[in-house]
Design a protein that fits this description.
The complex is a heterodimer of chains A (about 120) and B (about 110). With about 120 residues, chain A is mainly beta. Chain A contains no helices and eleven strands. In chain A, a hairpin with a 2-residue loop joins strand 9 and strand 10. Chain A is globular, with a radius of gyration of 13 Å. Chain B is an all-beta fold and about 110 residues long. Chain B contains no helices and ten strands. The termini of chain B are far apart. The model of chain B has no long low-confidence stretch (mean pLDDT about 95). The chains are: A mainly beta (about 120), B mainly beta (about 110). Chains A and B meet through strand 5 and strand 10 of A and strand 5, strand 8 and strand 9 of B.
Chain lengths: ~120, ~110
């Protein structure tokens, strides 16, 4: 069945770099895109970026200068890397499958990342 | 960028009550998707393309609207429907935008 699972460090130092992995199963990254979304504690969903089936990416303009998303299709993994972290980057980070442009049908369980000053 | 405004921000409903949540877009969109997020869990696709129920969604839910005004309706509120509901537009992107959510509580 379709599954997505986020993994990575739960505590990162301010000014450091966050590296997260979304490992997928039950589908191919060449057939479906993957979205990254984050949710600060007690707040709403913020779109971060997306990697499409052809490997192209789009990013939230507010994060673009410090965010990159790429993938390894052979390992069924999508990677998020964001630098210059600040405490307001503390959030739950989710990946989700893009079933067709801008519709997301399966979500990972999320990983809570705390940025410590 | 299309901004989505959800109302109300928070509401409480009694079991059996009819509930309507609203999502308004700053510009016309083809359709809206809705996600349900129960406390402590990840979002779930709930309604897509304005009015189509995702797999497993009870038939007491419905979605409607067009242009800039959309709604999610629960015909008869049940305890398990307590959650935050987010709308999302997929017409004009990037950016992919979400509403700020409506938190629905049970009375």
């Amino acid at each position: 069945q379709v599954q997505l699972k986020e993994s990575g460090p739960v505590l990162v130092q301010a000014s450091g770099t966050l590296s997260l992995t979304c490992t997928v199963s039950g589908f191919s990254l060449t057939n479906y895109g993957v979205l990254w979304v984050r949710q600060p504690p007690g707040k709403g969903l913020e779109w971060m970026g997306i990697i499409w089936t052809n490997g192209d990416t789009d990013y939230n303009s507010a994060l673009k200068s410090r965010l990159s998303i790429n993938r390894d299709t052979s390992k069924n993994q999508v990677f998020l890397k964001m630098n210059s972290l600040q405490t307001d980057d503390t959030a739950i980070y989710y990946c989700a499958r893009n079933i067709y442009p801008a519709l997301f049908d399966y979500w990972g369980q999320g990983v809570m990342v705390t940025v410590s000053s | 960028e299309i901004v989505l405004t959800q109302s109300p921000t928070t509401m409480a409903a009694s079991p059996g009550e009819k509930v309507t949540l609203t999502c308004r877009a700053s510009s016309s969109v083809r359709y809206i998707h809705w996600y349900q997020q129960r406390s402590g869990t990840s979002p779930k696709l709930w309604i897509y393309e304005t009015s189509k129920l995702a797999s497993g969604v009870p038939s007491r839910f419905s979605g409607g609207g067009s242009g800039t005004s959309f709604s999610l309706t629960i015909n008869s509120m049940e305890t398990e429907d307590a959650a935050t509901y987010y709308c999302q537009q997929g017409t004009s992107y990037p950016p992919i935008t979400f509403g700020s959510g409506t938190k629905l509580e049970i009375k």
